[in-house]
Amino acid sequence: xxxxxxxxxxxxxxxxxxxxxxxxxxxxxxxxxxxxxxxxxxxxxxxxxxxxxxxxxxxxxxxxxxxxxxxxxxxxxxxxxxxxxxxxxxxxxxxxxxxxxxxxxxxxxxxxxxxxxxxxxxxxxxxxxxxxxxxxxxxxxxxxxxxxxxxxxxxxxxxxxxxxxxxxxxxxxxxxxxxxxxxxxxxxxxxxxxxxxxxxxxxxxxxxxxxxxxxxxxxxxxxxxxxxxxxxxxxxxxxxxxxxxxxxxxxxxxxxxxxxxxxxxxxxxxxxxxxxxxxxxxxxxxxxxxxxxxxxxxxxxxxxxxxxxxxxxxxxxxxxxxxxxxxxxxxxxxxxxxxxxxxxxxxxxxxxxxxxxxxxxxxxxxxxxxxxxxxxxxxxxxxxxxxxxxxxxxxxxxxxxxxxxxxxxxxxxxxxxxxxxxxxxxxxxxxxxxxxxxxxxxxxxxxxxxx
Amino acid sequence: xxxxxxxxxxxxxxxxxxxxxxxxxxxxxxxxxxxxxxxxxxxxxxxxxxxxxxxxxxxxxxxxxxxxxxxxxxxxxxxxxxxxxxxxxxxxxxxxxxxxxxxxxxxxxxxxxxxxxxxxxxxxxxxxxxxxxxxxxxxxxxxxxxxxxxxxxxxxxxxxxxxxxxxxxxxxxxxxxxxxxxxxxxxxxxxxxxxxxxxxxxxxxxxxxxxxxxxxxxxxxxxxxxxxxxxxxxxxxxxxxxxxxxxxxxxxxxxxxxxxxxxxxxxxxxxxxxxxxxxxxxxxxxxxxxxxxxxxxxxxxxxxxxxxxxxxxxxxxxxxxxxxxxxxxxxxxxxxxxxxxxxxxxxxxxxxxxxxxxxxxxxxxxxxxxxxxxxxxxxxxxxxxxxxxxxxxxxxxxxxxxxxxxxxxxxxxxxxxxxxxxxxxxxxxxxxxxxxxxxxxxxxxxxxxxx
Lengths: 451, 451
Hints:
Two copies of one chain form a homodimer.
Chain A lengths: L1 H13 L9 H8 L3 H13 L3 E4 L3 E4 L12 H6 L7 H7 L7 E2 L12 H13 L13 H11 L6 E4 L1 H13 L5 E6 L3 H9 L3 E8 L2 E2 L1 H11 L3 E4 L13 H13 L3 E5 L24 E6 L1 H4 L6 E4 L3 H14 L4 H11 L4 H26 L13 E5 L6 H10 L2 E2 L1 E2 L12 E5 L8 H11 L1
Protein name (chains A, B): DNA-binding transcriptional MocR family regulator
GO molecular function, one term (chains A, B): pyridoxal phosphate binding
Pfam families (chains A, B): Aminotran_1_2 (PF00155), GntR (PF00392)
């Protein structure tokens, strides 16, 4: 096959752009191989851009891509100031160079991803006849049921979304109009801060500590801003792993009720606890449809299983569904079916236990090493999630520090992306999702050297 | 397996909610089957909601779902008027009852969908080791190359998006701020009209005829509205199959240039022509990065392959990419890889030829029947796409007519969803994507009876 592909590539190279290649029949005869081999070789050349096929006409040498420069200066006038704020998000998506230790991204390393289980689930799902038909708009029933049970919700209140980010994008844009303030528990997830700004909403920071949102500050923030929506991560927040303590749950909901506001609960880390079980979702304490809970499977199954859910009750549920249809139409059915296969399949619970144990071990090692090598920094040991929030010595520039560690072979997350306004100290987010336990001491060593 | 599942279901039914089931080992012994069989049976019961499993704890009878009613009246005050407009979109997603003839939805019937080819492509893609890793942010290279060749663009200008709807949502929201007017060629796609309104943008209608947008009306619309963006479908538009004629292409671009505006080209129907090839995309005539072209594979491969592309050049390309990251993060890699496998695989061109032939035959039959049975209506025979735009007799109410045909066993698309403001006449959109050729005369008969 390689030989045939190489021969065809040579042939195409010798012909001018746009020239027609000999017919398949002719190539079979000339090259002395079967028609399937010829077809596969042509497919290869189509995929890498050497030839194009035109239905009913044949195979042609691809024309060289245009290299003429185009004057697009007029666009800057038309576009004006951009509402889109994506730097924090892009930083978390950028794949580090080979050999660089990764404490910047929240994606599990391959040893923790259930890749073969995912592949099997996908293959099984893809072969089901209904897998490629239009799914019910609210999602495949078995998947809605599963999310409902995991969260303690009614199945009818569960709406399947295309991943956590798509879910948050829809929820945040469907409730309050552009220009409105939205309270954001900080430090928080940059993807949400970007979403809010890109939608013309105004994020208002509400500080948290290791027990989550601080109620007295929350009350003041609602009063001062008039916001009608609060976004928080009560369970193993990104970046600091904080947990909304039991005694703060009711006060937070009561304060939101007094403000006539919605509470958007980002529950993405539910299965990332380092112990056996996570606290119940905040929606379990919700008595008047105030809490909208967003969850997704990406963190425990892999960045490509973009399947999540939105749990909401009352009129807001229809509005969310309406905007989701308008934005996405539907969530690809094969992905939903693969998700069902995966989470109800044998070994799923074992996978989650192994994941918890590995993340817990990494958090332990990281905490020990930081205490040992960086006495000038402070942090709270996280009880779940995939990141630790490290407070830096007074006056340290987080971006500059991140640049120095990068030069020495370690990528980390500058803290400024995780807060809305100025912070009272500078921080780094240190992810332990991708980095393996054995590399953590080295990584901390690099950090120590860079400080 | 069924027997074991039934036994377990009976067992669970006899226990109170929350009670723990016997261990797997015990069940294996009691039921006299292997552990894999027991596990599969339990998986079944998890999937349909009878039991829940908790990692490290066991399998438990599911608690009954809450049935307490919740007072959500406060939400109506908090939500206010909804910007979300989703009726037109929902209508196109609603699956008609069994036995009802479907001329309402633009999804291909199963005989035309390449389902088994899709399933194989997906299965092959899912088993590739890199299929579940984070893809490059702009998309898998082979897929970008393929789209680039199909559209005559540079690969570097191609950005992979999660389907056409996601692409349009991102593009339309990233360019002009809320409150801005956007010109929309009408009759047009309800999904875009809904998107614009939901984003707080103001759709301004620009009439088309069978040769596409009318330049003199376009010029006037730009002058009167001050809009800086035009959305159109130059190639086999939905709903009327119109084609932007060759002599109008340059004038449309010049008029947009004079207005300092972007032109968003929706090229979703590229491969739905009834003849051998479609006209080139409008971007081929673009000399200053004015045209942003959106395309997707959904129409020719199935509603669940939510993979598309956005082609743009200049500063606007970065803004579009930024908002796409913020809204979606990435497009699931297995879907991208499956798309590559599908479109470069053997038989793809044959599939497209068969599709064109079938759609052309249906369009022919539909045109003949309409001319024969409904002389009081008029239309232009479409040269591509999957729908025909039928002009109704003066004074006919489109919604009322759709209701009457529905009662008689035929669903159609009321024309009001496809125009922005009042139309000079009422219309129906008649899709021939789902209905097979043999049923068309019956369907037209129902329409004739209903009129």
